[in-house]
Amino acid sequence: MRARRIVSGAAVALAVASVLAVEERTQAQGSVGPAPQGVTYRAPSGTTLRLMLDETNLGSEVSLGEMVFPPNQDSGEHAHDAIEIFYVVSGELEHVVNGRSQILKPGMSGFVRPPDKVRHKTGPAGAKVVVVWSPGIEGRRVASRWQREP
Question: What single-letter DSSP state applies at residue 46?
């Protein structure tokens, strides 16, 4: 069990590092360069999820995506059947777990374990986050309720 946690932790760290490298390269190159990988989904609220690593290219252990929350967004309280980890790239995200609130700023992370209740809120700037789910099927479950972008 401990070895499995270490492998999962290493996979999460590698996944987050790869997304941050893509983000850094994108900022340095502007609109020049290859298109980012992944499939993008849009929630009715306007929140987008770009799934970059999932069961189709990584396996079922972990999925990784980039979420962009519009300004003044409130996800409503919900729960996941997986560990959910957020890393804030830009903006601010109020991360409420079981009624306890924490403001996450760029460079900060938060997590939630099942069966915890979570709620995500943004202020006037919105937020861009890297999200990791383990087990990875959770990313596909979230995306299945949203509209796939062309």
Answer: S
Q: What percent of the chain has pLDDT over 90?
A: 69
Q: Are 128 and 66 contacting, i.e. CB atoms less than 8 angstroms apart? A: yes
Which residue bears the tokens 């059947």?
Answer: 81
Rounded-to-integer distance, Cα 141 and Cα 148, Å = 13
Q: Which residues, at least 6 apart from 1, have a Cβ–Cβ distance to it below 8 Å?
A: none
What does the pLDDT read at residue 61? Answer: 92
Note whether 136 and 62 are within 8 A (CB): yes
Give per-residue pLDDT as tens, 23-68.
454 444 444 444 458 999 999 999 999 999 988 888 889 999 999 9
End-to-end CA distance of the chain: 40
Helical spans, DSSP H, in the chain: 2-29, 137-143
Domains of the chain: 2-148 (2.60.120.10)
H/E stretch holding 129: strand 118-134
- In the chain, % helix, strand, coil (3-state, to 5) comes to 25, 40, 35
